């Protein structure tokens, strides 16, 4: 009774105050992922083979440190909660590392350039993992009821799309025209400083306003190895994780390659990526409300299964685009499918977390989400190998050595590879079932308000 009373006295975190944190966590990492190939490979001349090796190494390191970060978060006991201290530490560290990532001296060549890229790419991903393991773990804790969770998730995905408009669509304009040029690096450094400052303020604001439920942190601290073993023995961890990775890796390829797709496949200045990325993100944002209603009527699993094939079809359409107009038309389809995945994928994962908490009696969202992050971290391996394959099959090695047909190379990278991945995901999603039981916290009636 005392615990319930404490939680009630604390009140519930308004959905918008939690959701706005997604804006802060999305800006830095999406600028990094969306511009790293252009910045390091096409402008600074980093060889794609070295890029591929670094991405594989950092993905392996990141896959290993993710469960550890989530486990440490679950075991944290402070008067500020379990998640907030990590958010308040991770935000300034990610900001500093992002600025350093885009401040590589133009004089770096060969191994020195590779080392600079490797060190700061790994650090940026590590601090991004710290932030997202804790931010993501707050969703099922703050909003145990499905209807509240769906609203909070839609709001945060909306904030993420606003961040994507800025960090992906506006970035090429800022870096190549406002603060720099097509072949200079100064614009990236200035843009990184601005984005980093904005992200820091937003994340701190969200973290300080999040009202964690003290009931979730009063249990004994779960040991690492038994917890990990319990998770990896859960069949849903593998089926849902691998299927979701098909979507995550596909979008990682798109976000990383869109600027070079515009440059080489469409034959346009990089700044035109603003229009293509902008329409995709705007359609995705507008579609969130529609998909949320579909989830309310038909359930997250049904909507998830529908969104996968829609996204696959959109990549096929994008492959055959020949100019900005036809690319934007295909981008509308991408936005519809992507919006559906944004509205449903985290709800599918949250159901798996609910079932784990009900079965084991422990709230270890940090470790479980970080374990799911293992599949997300396959992005680095696959994007690295995919880019390396452009050198093997199409002769694209760098901006200094683009090969005979870089346009076809980036059609494969941005369209064909994601099409294959999302088609596999669409088939797998049809074969998956997820738990539908209500978590214990959601089943409990809310305490009646006392007299005012």
Could you explain the architecture of this structure?
By secondary structure, this protein is an all-alpha fold. It contains 17 helices and no strands. The protein has helices at residues 2-10, 15-19, 21-43, 48-75, 84-101, 110-142, 146-178, 186-209, 224-232, 235-265, 273-298, 300-319, 324-360, 365-376, 378-394, 406-431, 440-443. α7 (146-178) runs antiparallel to α11 and α10 runs antiparallel to α13 (324-360). It is globular, with a radius of gyration of 22 Å. Mean pLDDT is 83; it is low at 1-10 and 437-452.
Averaging pLDDT over every residue, what do you get?
A: 83
Q: Report on the biggest sheet.
A: none
Helix percentage range: over 70%
Number of strands: 0
Secondary-structure element string: HHHHHHHHHHHHHHHHH
Distance between the termini: 20 Å
List the helices and strands and how they pair.
Layout: H1 2-10, H2 15-19, H3 21-43, H4 48-75, H5 84-101, H6 110-142, H7 146-178, H8 186-209, H9 224-232, H10 235-265, H11 273-298, H12 300-319, H13 324-360, H14 365-376, H15 378-394, H16 406-431, H17 440-443
Helix pairs in contact: 3-5, 3-6, 3-7, 3-8, 3-10, 4-6, 4-14, 4-15, 5-6, 5-8, 6-14, 7-8, 7-11, 7-13, 10-13, 10-14, 10-15, 10-16, 11-12, 11-13, 12-13, 12-16, 15-16
Keywords for this entry:
single chain, disordered N terminus, 452 residues, mainly alpha, disordered C terminus
